[in-house]
Specification:
globular, 429 residues, single chain
Length: 429
């Protein structure tokens, strides 16, 4: 494959952005959907956790498949499943149908998340990998930026209009289906593929779990993300139900979180060569620790009201622009042929913890009284769980950096550490 182009990064970002769009666009409509389907708000809110759970479990399947069959077939199958499930969501008439179709939709979207990370690992390594991941994340975060606003505007036409737009993702999926054949050639050659046997698959997952340095680099990002998913699950309760905001106002506040995340993701691409991945990761973890303290104070005292809550939440979610790409790329650098398996396990842990965090928020948030009642602190206090847990792991002593032998003539890394032919890692500096 030739030198990766901006078009490729945009395409991969759009592919990865399908899932956040499917998650966030219907958040403002949850109370309305619950009323129209004759279900409790807690039941409709369960679709968020179920979606995250399906997304997590799907990655466990697609990761080994991507390492065995290649990257492209797995992407294409996932797009097809996502497209069909999106069309089905338009036709739901009860909560059970919605739950089932959202689970299938998440399972299809999981293929994109796994393969995008594995494909980038095929093409890049080191700081080039984190810059490439940051560019893809920058494109991907446009989806959650506009999704709640779109959902709020479409809610004027009725909540079915939201799923009508989701059905249009079927068309987008079909277009991506075609474009992938031309823009994303297979990056995993047959000789580099792993056998699709249970012992090999389980052994691959075990190898990742036993890699202490890689897990130490993954866990801060996984646990910090859990706090964000706690916010995503509980925010409709708190902003709309507790503070009495309109769906449009909710969408605008949600956009603030994503806006800061996009800004910090862009800064990460600029600062990574000067300061390095580990330093940028620590800056992000310091930010979520600070946000944790502020959220705890606001939750316990009610200080500042709505704006007192919004500021630390925005600060917290924004720091994922520093944490996400650096945490993932540091860990992915340890894996080559098994990049799909490593990406799958990382994604499963991330979204699995997110699903648990969302599930933990729901019974608490569901007990919130109407606007400005007492007891809202319980939901606000839950959010720091994710970021303080991430800080506890990220603050652990890190192993000393190993010095790799350099090529005497050009200072290049040995062949075992070089990237694939044509990638920045293989070309040297």
């Amino acid at each position: 494959m030739g030198k990766p182009t901006l078009t490729l990064f945009i395409l991969l970002g759009a592919l990865a952005g399908l899932t956040p769009l499917a998650i966030d666009m219907y958040l403002p409509a949850i109370p309305t959907i619950a009323q129209d389907l004759g279900a409790g708000v807690e039941g409709v809110q369960l679709t968020v956790s179920l979606f995250l759970g399906g997304f997590a479990l799907g990655q466990l399947v697609y990761g080994p498949l991507a390492d065995s069959l290649g990257r492209r077939p797995v992407i294409l199958f996932g797009l097809a499943l996502f497209s069909l499930s999106s069309l089905g969501c338009l036709l739901v008439t009860d909560l059970n149908q919605l739950l089932g179709l959202r689970f299938l939709q998440a399972s299809g979207g999981a293929a994109g998340a796994v393969v995008v990370n594995a494909l980038l690992r095929d093409l890049f390594s080191g700081e080039d990998l984190v810059r490439a991941m940051s560019l893809v994340i920058l494109t991907m975060t446009l989806a959650p930026l506009v999704a709640p606003l779109l959902g709020s505007l479409l809610l004027v036409l009725g909540w079915h209009a939201i799923f009508a737009l989701l059905a249009l993702l079927a068309l987008l999926g079909a277009l991506l289906f075609i474009m992938l054949y031309h823009l994303v050639p297979e990056t995993l050659p047959p000789e580099g593929r792993r056998p699709l046997r249970p012992a090999v698959v389980l052994g691959g997952f075990a190898d990742v779990l036993r890699h202490r340095l890689a897990m130490g680099q993954l866990l801060p990002g996984i646990l910090a993300s859990a706090g964000m998913f706690a916010f995503i699950s509980g925010s409709p309760y708190v902003y709309i139900g507790f503070f009495g905001l309109s769906p449009l106002e909710y969408g605008l506040l949600f956009a603030l979180n994503v806006g800061l995340m996009m800004l910090l993701t862009f800064l990460n691409t600029r600062l990574i060569r000067r300061w390095g991945q580990e330093r940028m990761l620590r800056i992000g973890l310091f930010g979520v620790a600070l946000a944790s303290v502020l959220l705890l104070v606001v939750g316990l005292t009610g200080m500042g009201g709505l704006m007192g809550l919004v500021f630390p939440v925005v600060l917290y979610v924004g720091q994922l622009g520093f944490i996400g790409a650096n945490s993932m790329s540091l860990a992915m650098n340890h894996f080559g042929r098994s990049a799909g398996t490593a990406s799958a396990l990382a994604g499963t842990l991330r979204f699995g913890c997110g699903a648990l965090a969302g599930w933990g928020v729901e019974p608490v948030a569901g007990q919130l009284p109407p606007a400005h009642g007492r007891g809202g602190w319980r939901c606000a206090v839950f959010v720091p769980w994710g970021c303080t847990s991430g800080m506890a792991v990220g603050g652990a002593p890190r192993p000393r950096r190993l010095r790799l032998p350099a090529d005497a003539a050009g200072g290049r890394p040995p062949p075992c550490c070089a990237g694939p032919p044509g990638s920045p890692a293989s070309r040297g500096s």
